[in-house]
Write a structure and sequence with these properties.
The chain is built from seven helices and three strands; from the N terminus they run αααααβββαα. It is mainly alpha-helical. The protein folds into two domains: 2-102, 434 Repressor (Amino-terminal Domain), CATH 1.10.260; 107-147. Helix 2 crosses helix 3 and helix 2 packs across helix 4. The radius of gyration is 21 Å and the shape is elongated.
């Protein structure tokens, strides 16, 4: 029984961490977040835990749904964490994990970032290369990383 309660406490703590992290990334205070979620501040505090070191508490699924909608989380993601998931997926494809976010930018953006980074490094270490040469190298690098399965293939 104690192991089960420990597991529930760990999942509640993780959910509190993820919700707090998302609120902070949206630059919201607790009262602002509660207002945005259309829930009472006391109910919102039950999700994140309060100042007096009282851990977070399980709330109704409708409350989690309001938080998910307001914070652009995929529906059901709060309940999924309580059931054992270790992350929350946002509607834009970003994955929230404790202490970080994993984003999945579009392939075009990745290719542009690789070109820009490679151009900057080439300018510092091989200034004799032309922009055309660094662009060609960047294209080749992206294709090689796709071939190795490190980057997703362009669709």
């Amino acid at each position: 029984m104690a192991a089960s309660q420990d597991r529930i406490a760990r999942h509640l703590e993780l959910l509190a961490t993820l919700v707090t992290q998302r609120r902070a990334s949206l630059h919201l205070g607790i009262d602002e977040a509660a207002r945005l979620c259309d829930i009472a501040p006391m109910t919102y505090r039950a999700v994140e835990g309060d100042k007096h070191n009282q851990g977070s508490k399980v709330v109704r699924d409708t409350t989690y749904a309001k938080i998910e909608k307001a914070f652009d989380m995929t529906p059901g993601s709060c309940r999924a964490v309580l059931d054992g998931a270790d992350s929350i997926k946002l509607l834009d494809g970003t994955e929230l994990i404790a202490g970080a976010q994993i984003s999945h930018p579009p392939m075009e953006q990745v290719a542009d970032e690789v070109k820009e980074a490679l151009g900057k490094v080439a300018g510092l270490h091989a200034p004799e290369l032309t922009h055309g040469q660094t662009d060609s190298m960047a294209d080749g690098l992206v294709k090689e990383l796709q071939r190795r399965g490190i980057l997703p293939s362009a669709r």
